[in-house]
Amino acid sequence: MPEMKYGIAAMNDRPSPVTPTGEKCAELREDFDYFDDNHDGLMEFGEFVGLMDGLGADMSSDECRIGFAEIDRDRDGVIEFEEFLDWWISP
Ligand SMILES: [Ca+2]
Ligand SMILES: [Ca+2]
């Protein structure tokens, strides 16, 4: 329900904390699920490319591969939500 979410954000104009709150975490979960096309709870490389496109990142396929490998810390070829979260909150 985006209207409601933005309504709450507009009323609450404090800067967002650096560490993800439960709310931020839920937001990221939504983003993650949105780009998880086959809804298996994992982000495959093709889905990651879709995420980067969605974020407006203009990345070549080589850059995508490097980025994907950076996020996929346990190197099992897919990005788990925990890896996505770690990547998002890391400076
Ligand atoms: Ca998936
Ligand atoms: Ca992984």
Describe this structure in words.
With 91 residues, the chain is mainly α. The protein has helices spanning 2-11, 22-35, 45-54, 61-71, 81-89; strands at residues 42-43, 79-80. Strands 1-2 form a two-stranded antiparallel ribbon. It starts with a helix and ends with a helix. The structure holds calcium ion (2 copies). Residues 36, 38, 40, 42-44, 47 line the site of one calcium ion.
Task: Briefly summarize what is shown.
The protein is mainly alpha-helical and 91 residues long. It has helices at residues 2-11, 22-35, 45-54, 61-71, 81-89, and strands spanning 42-43, 79-80.
Side-by-side strand order of the widest sheet: 1-2
Beta strand %: under 5%
Q: At the fourth CATH level, what is the homologous superfamily?
A: EF-hand
What level of helicity do the residues show?
Answer: 55-70%
Structural shape: globular
| Chain-averaged pLDDT | 84
Secondary-structure-based class equals mainly alpha
Secondary structure layout plus pairing:
Elements (H helix, E strand, L loop, with lengths): L1 H10 L10 H14 L6 E2 L1 H10 L6 H11 L7 E2 H9 L2
Antiparallel strand pairs: 1-2
Helix pairs in contact: 3-4
The site of one calcium ion has 7 residues, from strand 2.
